[in-house]
Amino acid sequence: MGVWSEQVVPRVTDLALGRPPVRRLRERALAPAHSVVVDLGSGSAPNLPLLPPAVTRVLAVEPSTTARRLAAPRIAAAAVPVEHVGLDGAALPLADDAADTVVSTFTLCTIPDLDTALAEVRRVLRPDGVFLILDHGLSPNPAVARWQHRLTGMQQRLFAGCHLERDIAGRVERAGFTFTSLEAVAIPGPSVLNHVVLGRCAARS
């Protein structure tokens, strides 16, 4: 990673995605989490203080050294054990059926090999497990979507590979998951960034 991606982006992300409206959405998204949780792209650990009491352990996956350093105070204050177990969502160093819950909050927009990462989620998630998603993506407004396609290259360069135009829910479904709940919400901010999906899904057998 370059200096910008490694030193600046994690700090900007920590601030931007720690705003109260986003925090409230995180709390809603994480409410069904339980038992052993894999936090895919855990970043500076903003999810940790919001996890429900049913969670017993967190396995964090995060490539950024700076983000992991920013996470240290939250990990120290966590009510459950937290272990960093990997750097790449597309190659999880975990056994099959290792997790009861996988959470991805503002991560699926950035993972370079998303299809492989989603296959890894299916592999490590127990058959009765839940996959919880909160992410921004392709707007249903055609005018906004056109701008997302135009600007996504710049967004990727500025924000560590983040895509503006990914159809997150569609990609998750095509990877073999079925949504048991799915909601589209708007968060304050630029129209190319404010279309967010919040969902809970399970792997199809």
Automatic annotation (TrEMBL):
GO terms for molecular function: methyltransferase activity. GO terms for biological process: methylation. The keyword Magnesium does not apply. Signal peptide: none annotated. Keywords: Methyltransferase, Transferase. Pfam families: Methyltransf_11. The keyword Metal-binding does not apply. Residues 38-133 form the Methyltransferase type domain. This is Class I SAM-dependent methyltransferase. It comes from Actinomycetospora endophytica.
